[in-house]
Every structure is written in C-alpha cells, then in structure tokens.
Amino acid sequence: MLEELADKSERAYCSLLKGLVKHGNYDQAVQVYRKMRDAKLVPDSQAYAALIGAVLYTQSEREERVNVITGYLKEMSKHGVAPTLEVFNQFLRVLSFGPKTNKYQNMALSVLREMKKLHIEPSLTSWTQLLLIFYPIDGKEYNSSVMRTVLSELTGKELEWRHPEDAEFFPIAMRKIAACLNDVDLAYELDALLNHGNNAAMLSSFAHVSLYYTNLFDVLMELETFDKVVALWEQLVPNTYSPNRFTMKNFIDLVDRCGAVQLIPRLWSDVVSFDGLSRATDGPMMVDRLLAIMIKHTEGDLADEWKSKFAEIVVGVQTRCPLVAEEQNDRRESRGRALNRMEWTAPMLGNLLLIALRCNGFDEAWKIFEVFSPKRASFVGSPSGRSLAALVAACVDREDVGKATSVLEAMDDLAVEEAKSSAQLLRGRADLALQEGQRALIDRILARKDKPVKIRIAETSLY
User: Fold this and answer.
1) Which of 329, 222, 320, 310 lies closest to 262 in space, CA to CA?
2) What is d(CA 94, CA 358) in angstroms, rounded to the nearest whole number?
3) How far apart are CA 438 and CA 432, in angstroms?
4) Nearest CA-CA partner of 217 in 202, 200, 235
5) Are 5 and 12 in contact (CB under 8 A)?
6) Which stretches of the chain score pLDDT less than 70?
C-alpha cells in the first residue's frame, strides 16, 4: 500500500495512517508511522492521536502502553506538533483501561492539568474518561469528590458537541452515581445540568436515554420520597423514557410497599404501552407481580371506583395475553395470528379469578375457571386454595350447585386443603338440592384424610 502511494507527502502518509486505525488495522498503522520516521516525515496531531488510541491494541502490557504514549508526546514536543483535545482524550481513554491504581489516577489528573496549561478545555469525553478512571467498578463504593469536582466544572454551562463520544457523558455519569456513589443529591445535580438550556440534546439516542433514566430511577427509588418518584415518573413516562422490565419491577415494588392502590391502573397501562407482555421473559413476571399486588389490596373493603378499574384490568390481561396452554399458543401463532406468547401458570390464573370475584365479576371468574379446569394438567402449579374456595362460595351464593360441585371436584383432584371447608359449606346449605353424585363427592372429600398437595413445580422462578 505504501509503495502504491503516488503522493508520498506527510499529508498522504497521515491520511493513510488515520484510515488504517479507523478500520482496525493498528499494526499496519504503526508500520506507516515507522516509515514516516525513517523518511524524516512528521505526523500531524490527528495522526498522533490515532496512534495513541491504537496503543490499546498494539501493546498488551499496560505499563508499556504509557511508555509508548510518553514517547509519542516527546516526539510531538520535539517537532513542534501542538497536542490537541483529541490527543489528550485518547491518552485518557488508554488510562481508563489501565490498572485501578492511584498511579493511573494521578496520571489522569496530570493530563487535565496539562490541558489547562495549554488552554485546552476538556470536552465531555474528557470528563467521561476521568469518571471511568476514578470509578472503574460498578457496585463498589468510592469517594464522591471527583464526581463533585466534575459537576462543579460543568454546572450552569451550555454544553457543545466537541467530540464524537460526548454523548456518553450523561448516561455514564448517572450510572456511576447510581452504582458507585448512591447519592441522590449528585443525581439531582447531574439532572439539573442535563435540563439546563439545550443540554438534553446530548442524550442523542434511545440507548443513552434509557441508560440515563434507568440509573436515575435506581437512585431515586432507593433514596427519594415516594411522591417525588411518582411525580418524576408521571413527567417522563412514556413521552421521554420507556422503562425496561427491571425498572418497571422496581417501580411496581415501590407502589406495593407504599400501598398506592390508585397507581395500579397506571402500572398496567405502562406495562401494556411498552409491549412488555409480548416478551416471554417479561410477561409472566409483570402480570404475576401486578396480580399479587391487586390480591393484596382487594382483601378489605375496596371503593366501587377501584373495583371497576381492577375489573377492567382483569379483562385487559386476558385480551393482551389469551388464557391458552402453550401448545395452543404455538398453533395459533403458526396460523399467523399475532398473539402475545406468555405462559400462564395456575397460581396466576387463580389470582386473576380471585380478583374478578372481589370486583363483582363472577361471570369473568367463571370464564377463567372454564379455561383452566379441562386443561389443568397443561398449567404449571396449582391455583391457590382460597381462590377456588372463593369461587365455590360465590356459586353457593348464587345457588348454583352444578358449578359449585364442578369447582369442588377440581379442588379434590388438586388435593387443595380448602376442599374440606368448601364441601362443608355445601353440605351446610340445607336449602340446596344436591344430587346423589354431588352428595357422594362431598362425603368422599369430608371422609378423606389430608394428603400432600400435588403441585407441579416450575423449573424457573417467575419472580
């Protein structure tokens, strides 16, 4: 390639060198540099920046990387090539991959001092690399002084794009605040910087937005008051931020801990909005958790307004995630129907059924039982005894002996502990006309000794 160069000027060599580095041909780039040196040609600052960045790939020994870069910097000084922002940023980037020692941290600070001496203002990329050097390991606690210094340098400024990787600053800084410092004041300070002027434009991609706000909510959900978390959630979701399943799970848990029953319909709306139910790993976890919370908060008296909203959720769950066995789901998808593939478990169906009953939805509860009963072997686990017992009680209240005994038969087959109390309930209603087979079922259940519950254990936990 060198021999084919018609123009063997410094400019041509530098262009070739930078192109080789850009496309990952690092060893060849070094060969071009050596040819230039042999020919008494001097690389420009951009070529030196490329060479410094390439050190990560041409030198396996970390200490040797610093030695090579120091050699490049000495050559630049000797030939009067002024270092640029990109030269220093590449040096900081190499240091961020070095040992997690005070020596490398002090080197990084020396680089910043040299930049200040040369009146080169650090870019956001410079600060990003500094944070990676001082806070290298997520989950480990560090001193917050460097983060505070960085934010004090930037607070109140209108930020500009000065380097291709400047967009990494906000998401990485917030990740370090969440994972290494766990400081709500620093999180708010960084967020204020983001929302100053047009700085929010620095979050230039969906991935950057997602990483930034995921970590912001991680900090706030742990340290901030519930009302402030909810206010920010309502401000950002879904117009600015689409939470991932882990953030959704954490927010659902927070709502549960604070007993904010009024937010449950909003939670369901968010889960649906982000299409979380279409992913097999997300659907069961989200639905299972929401149903468990609804069960918890419908145990006592519930206002008719919330009963109506919860009843809508019961219908919505089934609309979004049809209550069919997995093999049926596969067949429907093979016919081209766009169904959400979510494997329902028997405990989830039991919770759904119980919520329907508590929200005055007997017909809806019975539909759920009709889906489960004939194919109960297809569903993992067993519905809770209290959900089936509640259905028996509701049938008795309606004086529907046929339905009551159908549920009782399923309870007996599943060896549900509450089967005896439900059988006693039926027997105690002298006004109900029981057929001979129905009486025999009740007598058999009441005469039977307790036996271990038959449950198919799921291979993996849903939550």
Assistant:
1) 310
2) 62
3) 11
4) 235
5) yes
6) 1-7, 275-283, 324-341, 450-463
- Which residue from 270, 262, 257 is spatially nearest to 316, judged by alpha carbons? 270
Cα(295)–Cα(379) distance, integer angstroms: 20
Report the phi/psi class of residue 350: left, alpha or beta, with left for phi > 0 and alpha for psi in -120 to 50: alpha
- Please give the radius of gyration of the chain, using alpha carbons only, rounded to the nearest integer: 33
CA distance 49 to 47: 5
What predicted TM-score, i.e. pTM, was given to this entire model?
0.83
Single out the residue of 1, 74, 20, 79 nearest to residue 44, CA to CA: 79
State the pLDDT at residue 325. Answer: 52
Residue 203 Cα distances to 13, 191, 237, 358, angstroms = 36, 12, 16, 46
Tell me whether the omega of the peptide bond preceding residue 284 falls within 30 degrees of 0, making it cis: no
In the block, which residue shows the tokens 């030695």?
67
- Phi, psi of 439, rounded to the nearest 5 degrees: -65, -40
Three-state secondary structure call for residue 261 = helix
Query: If you count them, how many residues does the chain have?
Result: 463
Written as one string, the DSSP assignment of 154-212 is: HTT------STTGGGHHHHHHHHIIIII--HHHHHHHHHHHTSTTGGGG--SHHHHHHH
Q: What local confidence, expressed as pLDDT, does residue 331 receive?
A: 44
